[in-house]
Amino acid sequence: MTAPEVLTAHDPALAPLVDKVLAGHRLSFDEGVTLFHTPDLPTVARLADTVRARLTGDKTYFVHSLRLSQTNICYVGCTFCGFQRKFGEEGVWDMELGDVWAYVDEHHHPDLTEIHISSGHHPKRPFGYYLDLVRGLSERGYQVKAWTAAEIHHFTKITRPRMSYREVLSELKAAGLVALPGGGAEIFAERVRRRVARAKVTAEGWLDVHRTAHELGLPTNATMLYGHVETLEDRLDHMLRLRALQDETGGFMSFIPLAFQPDNNDLARELNKSEFTTGLDDLRNLAVSRIMLDNVPHIKGYWIMITPELTQVTLSAGVSDIDGTIKDERIAHASGASTERGMTEGQLVRLIQDAGRVPVRRDALYKELKVFEREPALVG
Length: 380
Ligand code: V47
Hints:
Blueprint: H1 15-22, H2 29-37, H3 41-56, E1 59-63, E2 65-68, H4 97-106, E3 114-117, H5 127-139, E4 143-146, H6 149-158, H7 165-175, E5 177-179, H8 190-196, H9 203-215, E6 220-226, H10 232-249, E7 252-259, H11 266-271, H12 279-292, E8 298-299, H13 303-306, H14 308-314, E9 321-324, H15 331-334, H16 345-353, E10 358-362, E11 368-371
Parallel strand pairs: 1-9, 1-10, 2-3, 3-4, 4-5, 6-7, 7-8
Antiparallel strand pairs: 10-11
The structure holds ligand V47.
């Protein structure tokens, strides 16, 4: 299923944007606003699909992965987060290294490739614990994609004398770290960040961690938490700051919009919000991301937060990666995610094939491990 290179916009305001994108040109902030406001969502989706097809053809990627959140102890207090706990609170956990090895053994599968770690800002664990954790998992043969830029920032604060981003990342890399996940970005716009993630790494700090990682040869991802108090302009500002950094370094592998999960967190209570983002907002947001972030290889549809069913639809609106098996997601589920905590490879393959795409199992760095070609139809 190859997207057509001829596209007729029904909204006249879209026509010049379509021509520009088809000619391989980049859209401006104001043109991004038009993409968000036009009633002609089908054209936006088809345009995103065309961009996606040029970049990845018919392939849709996934990884055989395990989520690991070694602790939910966190003293940062982001208002959107239902995952964080303080010492002694109900539902708290804090794994010793032995617990981590047992957890990973429990979830082992011969095809398990990536361990994706994201957790809380623990005030007491020394930096050496994190190095040992990465080393131990790498020695067991897993690719470790670990800790958001917010946590990397936290590691610099717990070291004495205080280490720089470069020193922390270099030591983690030497211990075996292969990539950084994209969490902790939330929304860069200061007004929103102050409201939802006041004590977290600043936008500049987040970008600086990723810049440093890229300079050290560690590829990373980027996320954006949307569907709460941000404006559409804030979303575009966020995307364009990432696009500018990607122009500098080329180190981002994928961009992952994260739909706000509105349960068990202060922000949901403050906004009196219990409804999830709507499917069309999720779809449009992914399509606009694909068109605006013309230099990022993949847009990831995060089925955990937007459901597998909608994720399948987004494969026709710019998405070329659907994360993976995950097995034991905890952050989104702590804030009310209604999906399963993991999916099997068979389920992912079916979802992709039924959308007319070719599933590709990849590793953490997008090396292709298995292409699921369709069986030729039997004749006679
Ligand atoms: O850092 C927390 C966000 C992130 C909520 O890099 C919330 O491949 C929505 O970073 N509603 C963790 N979002 C998830 C993450 C991620 C997910 C998938 C792929 C990758 C990747 C990274 O989730 C956190 C925070 O930004 N988050 N609470 C919430 N209530």
